Amino acid sequence: IQIHASGGTFIEAYAALPHTTQSLTVEANQSHLWNTAARNLTHHIATNEEIVADDDFGEMVFAPFHTITENLHAATMPMPARGVEPQPPWADAMHAALESEGLRMDQLTIPHVRRPAFRTADRPLFAAATQVSFGATQRDELASPRSPNRSKREVSFTLPRGSYATVLLRAMGQ
């Protein structure tokens, strides 16, 4: 995409972007804030027992099951948006996520742009995999002969809607 916005304002340049690109920027920003808040909360819940996976996409923190209290098993946290009032148990974690970006919840808007908007939706904080099964360890025909990881294993599981298999696989790899 090539857009010429010489001499214009940031808002004019942003408004000139295709709507799909604008929407992606809002959704990516909301996901970043939500993930940061979830990571903050998980650090707090699993104090000194958390499992950390770090890669190019940032740190992911997993709480061992025994550290998650029963009231959190089905807990949700809304996507950050203007008008959302942070509530326990996730309020402090969300405030810290926003503060780390120099933001407050009431600032989650794009001035002078009607669409896209920061919209909220509840997302579960924790998801349980069911119907988990592991196949036998086999030789990995795609691995380099000198690789220390020359085996593979098939795994299958079911996750609730909205959960990410890649996140579970990262946790399993830790």
What does this structure look like?
With 174 residues, the chain is of the alpha+beta class. 30% of the residues lie in helices and 17% in strands. It is built from four helices and eight strands; from the N terminus they run ααβββαβββββα. Helix 2 crosses helix 3. The longest helix is centred in the first third of the chain and has 27 residues. The two termini are 39 Å apart.
Our estimate of the beta-strand percent is 15-25%
Number of strands: 8
Mean pLDDT, to the nearest integer, reads 88
Question: What are the low-pLDDT stretches, counting only 5+ consecutive residues below 50?
Answer: none
Helix content: 25-40%
Strand order of the largest sheet: 1-2
Helix and strand succession?
HHEEEHEEEEEH
Which word captures the global form? Answer: globular
* Radius of gyration, taken over Cα atoms and rounded to an integer in Å: 20 Å
Instruction: Tell me the distance between the termini.
Output: 39 Å
Q: Report the biggest beta sheet as strand number plus sense, adding barrel if it closes.
A: 2 strands, antiparallel
Number of helices: 4
Oligomer kind: single chain
Structural class: alpha+beta
